[in-house]
Amino acid sequence: MKIIVDAMGGDKAPEVIVCGAVKAATEYRVNIELIGEPGQIEALLKKHKYPKDYISLHPASEVIQMSEPAALSVRKKKDSSICIGLDLLKERQGDAFFSAGNTGAVVCASTLTLGMLLGIERPGIAILIPTLKGFSLVIDVGANIDPKPLHLLQYGFMADVYFCHILNRPHPSVGLLNIGEEESKGTDFVKETYHLLSNSHLNFIGNVEGKDLFSGKCDIIVCDGFVGNVALKVSESLVETVYTFFERHLKSNPLGMIGSAFLSASLAQFKKQTDYSEYGGAVLLGVNGVVIIGHGRSNEMAVKNAIRRAKEEIEYRVNDRIIEAINVNPVRKQAF
Amino acid sequence: MKIIVDAMGGDKAPEVIVCGAVKAATEYRVNIELIGEPGQIEALLKKHKYPKDYISLHPASEVIQMSEPAALSVRKKKDSSICIGLDLLKERQGDAFFSAGNTGAVVCASTLTLGMLLGIERPGIAILIPTLKGFSLVIDVGANIDPKPLHLLQYGFMADVYFCHILNRPHPSVGLLNIGEEESKGTDFVKETYHLLSNSHLNFIGNVEGKDLFSGKCDIIVCDGFVGNVALKVSESLVETVYTFFERHLKSNPLGMIGSAFLSASLAQFKKQTDYSEYGGAVLLGVNGVVIIGHGRSNEMAVKNAIRRAKEEIEYRVNDRIIEAINVNPVRKQAF
Q1: Rounded distance, CA A129 to CA A136, Å?
Q2: What is the pTM of this model?
Q3: Which of B187, B190, B316, B330 is deepest in the core (most CB within 10 A)?
Q4: Domain definitions of chain B by residue range
Q5: Rounded-to-integer distance, Cα B34 and Cα B24, Å
Q6: pLDDT by residue (tens digit) across B10-47?
Q7: Are B40 and B323 within 8 A, CB to CB?
């Protein structure tokens, strides 16, 4: 098994990517191919101790920056770490690709290079979020910002397979993100999606609201990529804001300051549970290959966990199972 | 000055509405007309001590339930507390209307009964949210879920007037909620809105992301009602979820339990700062009258604060100022 890693993608690349890759190679004994500028990567690798046989290097002379327009940059920078990494994946010189770089470019290049799974029209980014009851899978959080209702049905379908096989939780419940619970609520787009989901084989529980995202009301939340992206980013920043508010109050109050001295263990545990880097990247479902997308702000822990997630996806053969589910099970096929 | 209050709207109506109205009448010495079922309201009023001259009662035989379809319920239930309250406002038998009932019905009935301000095509719900730098005004959070770009420009315009005059903060900065900061990001709808905002007289700073909602990056955040509603509800629930997570960790750890004993003052202060009920309802901007919308879960404190907000809006003549700004200032008129 070999995981292809974009060494140049992310706010703190290549430093944290190389560091995370070294940690993953050491801990999981998985082969990693780092794609990027050889001089920089070799210099960074020299700073670490790691099992040499597990890490190799493939040069890429260009880097797609975080702020570049996705489609244009993929077209122009054929020798970028993202494009080369995905070419290698297509040529089966690796089993999965991970990047914490420009998300739009990764989605675009993955779609163009790998193509879609049979029966799936658009890729969707699925992410696990912590909830009061465990975790939920939200799809799509930004791959497809102007989707059709059918795409959301397909997201529900892929997430169902993912939940059943990777997370080993059969018959996951599926909710549609809307502005109210009633079937009559929302835009025409959401109403049509509701109709498709309720007529599918999925365990569809109906509309869920923004307030249900972290309550654990359902296992899978389906939404369009624009709304999902905003909801996810609001959530990430709000956890940090709440934390900052809370710290300010603690520091502004003498009793609070005494109390906070007793709290370091709780705070650390709390931070761990709400820290995105523990959850190891998002999964790009729908493309014909295993692609894991990291947060631009990924630290080395996030990179290491994303590589672990890629390893699990390969082992559980997610895409094979999505194809099997579509082709073997006539009920599932019918939904399309 | 008289504020018309829908006594029957909200999850805990009429109890908390009557209680909040009594508190507001006592504290602010403002006249309040309660609309609803007289028997129930009189029975509740008898339980309280309050300045009798300040609270009157107007009967309404019907109630629009929280889950009813907005347009249909407004058409069918002409004798509902929402419809009668807005009729009274239109007839100038009061100066503002407050309801914590069915938001869609309040928006629909307000638009039909009061009409729009000259130059404004659609109403928008504006809400103040706490940020790391103070607060921001987000518009729209659910009045108009399928808007045109021009509507968002008009929201920016109204929010600008609101910020200048009510909040006494001239030249507020305006951001457009999007999935990335670059001008090229987002759907066609968002790109067109960006173009309109950047060519207006507003202090437009460009796109902001979900992560900027609580950072205080700009004073006003403009978005479509669907996205705004989801973002707001995600935020509300996430604050509660984070709080629950944190409490769990405190209780699961002996040092945490000792620490938490010192923290009651900080926790109370923190809760107050992040508690929606302190902010006193949302403002329905664009209709020809002062309308304040409360959270369905409003408690008596939220009701009292919403009535205070209505009083301030009347005193500061928000709608007159929006009309003045459109008609007097040629630069502002030009934007339309």
Answers
A1: 5
A2: 0.91
A3: B190
A4: 2-117+286-308, 124-276
A5: 12
A6: 999 999 999 999 999 999 999 999 999 999 999 999 99
A7: no
ipTM exceeding cut-off 0.85 for this assembly: yes
Radius of gyration of chain B (CA): 21
- Chains A, B: CB contacts within 8 A come to 202
Is A65 in the B-facing interface, judged by CB distances under 8 Å?
A: no
CA separation for the pair A308, A304 (Å, rounded): 6
Tell me the C-alpha distance between B126 and B232, whole Å. 11
Rounded alpha-carbon distances, angstroms, from residue B214 to A291, B106, B138, B236, B238: 31, 27, 11, 12, 13
Report the alpha-carbon distance of residue B195 to residue B218 in Å, rounded.
18
Region for residue A334 given its phi and psi (left: phi exceeds 0; alpha: psi -120 to 50; beta: otherwise): alpha
What does CATH list as the number for A2-120+286-316? 3.40.718.10
Domains A2-120+286-316 and A124-276 share a fold: yes
The single-letter DSSP state of residue A210 is G
CB count, 10 Å around CB of B278?
A: 14
Distance CA A333, CA A148 (A): 19
- Cross-chain Cβ contact B258/A256 below 8 Å: no
Q: Does A268 touch chain B (CB under 8 A)?
A: no
CA distance B194 to A93: 43
Nearest CA in chain B to A252: B266
What integer is the mean pLDDT of A185-213?
A: 95
CA distance A220 to A283: 14
Rounded Cα distance between B116 and B107, Å, is: 11
With beta carbons under 8 A apart, name residues in chain B contacting A242: 238-239, 242-243, 274
Looking at 3.40.50.720, 3.40.718.10, 3.10.420.10, 3.20.20.80, the CATH number of the domain B2-117+286-308 comes to: 3.40.718.10
